[in-house]
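note to self — DONT lose this again. spent like an hour looking for the file last time. sequence + predicted structure for the chain T wanted, 426 res
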Amino acid sequence: MRLELVTVGTELLLGFTHDTNAADIAQALAAVGGIIDRRATVGDDHAQIHDAVSQALERTRFVVVTGGLGPTRDDVTKRAVAELFGAPLELDEAYLETLRERFARFGRGPMPPSNRSQAEVPRGATVLPNPRGTAPGLWLEGTPGVAVLLPGVPHEMRGLLAEQVVPRVRARIAEDGGAARVTLSRALRTSGIGESALADLLTEVEPRLPPITLAYLPQLAGVDLRLTAWRLPPAEAGLALERAAEALRAALGRHLYGEGDTALAAVVLDLLRARGYQLALAESCTGGLVGAAITSVPGASATFLGGIVSYADVSKVRDLGVDAALIERHGAVSQEVALAMADGAAKRFGVAAAAAVTGIAGPGGGTSEKPIGTVCLAARVGPLRRTVRRWLPGDRLFVRERSVQAVLDLVRRLLLEEADTEGGSG
């Protein structure tokens, strides 16, 4: 099935909102055999929506539209598309009652009059129930083709996509009698190696990957490798992806930390748990961001005891026991001080695993010897202690976020090294 996507919202055109809906729809439909020919984004304008949907239907006769189904004056998608199908809006009394019950159930008082418009449905359209919001999805089918209208709120859209749209698309492909050919992707996540070095590392492996294609996607945590199987039978696509992933895993070694949407912090916590360690942190330039990354993982409290944000030098001395003479001699941003901070955190929390980060995030404070973006990291795991100095050029936010990933990766690698040492000696 070939189709097009149209996302509606002036906020998308202005750049105030990222269009995650189009990506979610494309991935979900490609996985069941939908082929996305084109994507378009238009503002909350009747004429723009009418033209974009009309052109999409002329090309593919199937279009998915998100946004513009709310109760306010700028929500005009439904009316614009209904006109294309010659389907006047009619009040759906059953859905109107559903809306009233929803407002009463959540204690919001009487339903505002503006929400009544959300119960107006193009004649002949199928209402796709939306238990997560007030705007239902709509499936219109007629002479122009098929138009699926979904709300723009991402979590509402994703629910309707999974529960209402994907099953219908899958069934439609089966009814058409065509053998399903899907486009599937898998991501391998790496850290501690740049894009160019990664490409050099995979020079001999990459030519052996077809029919799978490989894309390099730099992220804050490292470089993701996206493997894609294009328009293959489902079983064949899955097998080809696994074979390609296996070849890459062997080549990547410890640069690989996970797959899919695996978070580096979750990997570190799993390794700590497996080794029987609890972790403490000492943060300077990151200001608690490392701790925030770790505590975003459910169950982190079993392994992560806490941390100290020692932003000022006086805090490094008072709260972590760093020798003031060490700071005077090497500077607060130094490997020596970073290691002393990690040692101080380990002692303060009574743990055998600790990490520290100190750096110059900018926009001021850099020198020729220590330019903005200079970051010193340290970690200790059992008997192992390690400190490194990195240069992470970029703005303040970039330096801080990259520092988080760098220190987590240092802990990960030290845990793996300790496991290897114990295994070799045993």
